[in-house]
Write a structure and sequence with these properties.
Strand order of the largest sheet: 3-4-5-6-8-7
Mean pLDDT: 87
Helix content: 25-40%
Number of strands: 8
Length: 240
């Protein structure tokens, strides 16, 4: 989706492309469900922005039968291959200081069924059946948080500096996600991720996955890209 959208929007619009050459873009996952689509989309974005940061979503780690299952034994292997691909095209998945006193810190993430406060146990549905893991599905969130260990540290040298973190999955239950979808709450976020966001002392966190727009405050400020609004009260969301 990102590859097609970026390519179509960029055709014949050189003035708009030039307008972003000094900007930094954060992509909070779900660029595509094959490596080829991901590479195309991110390469297009890299031509338009000075720097592009990425953290993977669930779709990025799918392994489609008959398309990539011979190339990648599991989704961890695909993630490692993604790091190599992005090194080649200049897309960044590691923390960096993008301007004086301004840091971008991508965080790996996966959902934990305990995010469902009403029924904090694994459900009967498997949302990402195209993912293949070398560990039980219920342990993937811990694996992802372990990948963050080296990047979860203090970045600010002075109080006035700014840290932006990003993840695909939600770090807090107060953030909006579609209610009424079977077992969605079990497959949308991870509260333990928020502990890492806080340790980094993030001033703003960018997240994806929900297809709902939001910009508000829940202790720290969070933003989301796509439709629906986030109340700044931090109240539990009750979207219909």
């Amino acid at each position: 989706r990102v590859a097609e959208d970026v390519r179509d929007r960029g055709r014949g619009r050189g003035d708009e492309v030039a307008a972003y050459q000094h900007d930094v873009l954060i992509v909070a996952g779900d660029c595509g469900d094959t490596m080829n689509a991901i590479k195309q989309g991110m390469r297009e974005l890299k031509t338009k922005f000075r720097r592009v940061f990425f953290t993977p979503g669930n779709h990025d780690l799918w392994i489609r039968p008959g398309l990539e299952d011979q190339e990648y034994p599991d989704s961890v292997c695909k993630l490692l291959a993604m790091l190599n691909v992005f090194d080649e095209i200049g897309v960044e998945m590691a923390p960096a200081e993008v301007a004086q006193g301004l840091y971008v810190v991508p965080l790996y993430s996966w959902y934990n069924a305990a995010f469902d406060e009403g029924d904090p146990v694994p459900g009967s549905l498997r949302y990402d059946k195209f993912c293949k893991w070398p560990m039980p599905d219920t342990d993937v969130w811990q694996y992802m948080l372990n990948l963050n260990r080296e990047r979860v540290r203090q970045y600010k040298r002075h109080p006035e500096e700014t840290v932006l973190t990003c993840s695909h999955f939600l770090p807090r239950h107060e953030l909006p996600f579609p209610w009424g979808v079977a077992e969605m709450a079990k497959n949308v976020g991870c509260k333990e991720l928020d502990l890492q966001v806080q340790r980094v002392e993030a001033d703003m966190h960018v997240y994806g996955h929900t297809h709902m727009n939001g910009d508000g405050e829940c202790g720290n400020q969070y933003v989301r890209d796509s439709s629906g609004a986030l109340s700044a009260t931090g109240a539990k969301n009750n979207y219909d």
